[in-house]
Amino acid sequence: MSTTIKKPTASWRVVDIVVAAVVSVACGVIFWLWDQAYAGVEVATAAFAPLSGLYSGGWLLAGVLGGLIIRKPGAALFCEILAAVVEALLGSQFGVTVLLSGLVQGLGAEVAFAIFAYRRWNLGVALLAGGLSGLALGVSEVIQFFPTWEFGWQLAYTVFAVISGIVIAGLLSWLAVKALAKTGALSAFASGRAADV
């Protein structure tokens, strides 16, 4: 089966904006719920704090999922930022730093889709988007929150964030789009009609 589609259009339709907003709000709620469990993760990983990077993929869902559904330049970035805004408005314990995180993580996913000129939407691209988003998260969080860690710990945290991004954001987003496409819920989108889903 082909995983390449015709040249994408950069213009957004009203349905693109509405669905991107719905995806973002839903993911923003997930982000906030993910925040609530983080204290437990910190306790569980206290002996080797970089392991907490394995938990980070939940904060990367919006960009990968939005990009896979909308398939337009800027969709991953838009969804990740808007989800971060919702997370902040719900009262994230991380405060407004989540807005910067949304920007950086959304750019990571956006780069993966841009590498393939917004024409390939297979599992490999979804995993790459999750991985690059995880890389962006890992690097930015090491700089912001863990600058005093030794380099080995910083590297381990970043590697774990990449793995988490690949599995949680990349794989789960791709499976979610595939499942939604089968229901017909994405029929207004190329993601709901393409052979690669």
TrEMBL record:
<keyword id="KW-0812">Transmembrane</keyword>
<dbReference type="Pfam" id="PF09819">
    <property type="entry name" value="ABC_cobalt"/>
</dbReference>
<protein>
    <submittedName>
        <fullName>Membrane protein</fullName>
    </submittedName>
</protein>
<dbReference type="InterPro" id="IPR017195">
    <property type="entry name" value="ABC_thiamin-permease_prd"/>
</dbReference>
<keyword id="KW-1133">Transmembrane helix</keyword>
<feature type="transmembrane region" description="Helical">
    <location>
        <begin position="12"/>
        <end position="34"/>
    </location>
</feature>
<feature type="transmembrane region" description="Helical">
    <location>
        <begin position="155"/>
        <end position="177"/>
    </location>
</feature>
<feature type="transmembrane region" description="Helical">
    <location>
        <begin position="98"/>
        <end position="118"/>
    </location>
</feature>
<feature type="transmembrane region" description="Helical">
    <location>
        <begin position="125"/>
        <end position="143"/>
    </location>
</feature>
<feature type="transmembrane region" description="Helical">
    <location>
        <begin position="75"/>
        <end position="92"/>
    </location>
</feature>
<keyword id="KW-0472">Membrane</keyword>
<feature type="transmembrane region" description="Helical">
    <location>
        <begin position="46"/>
        <end position="68"/>
    </location>
</feature>
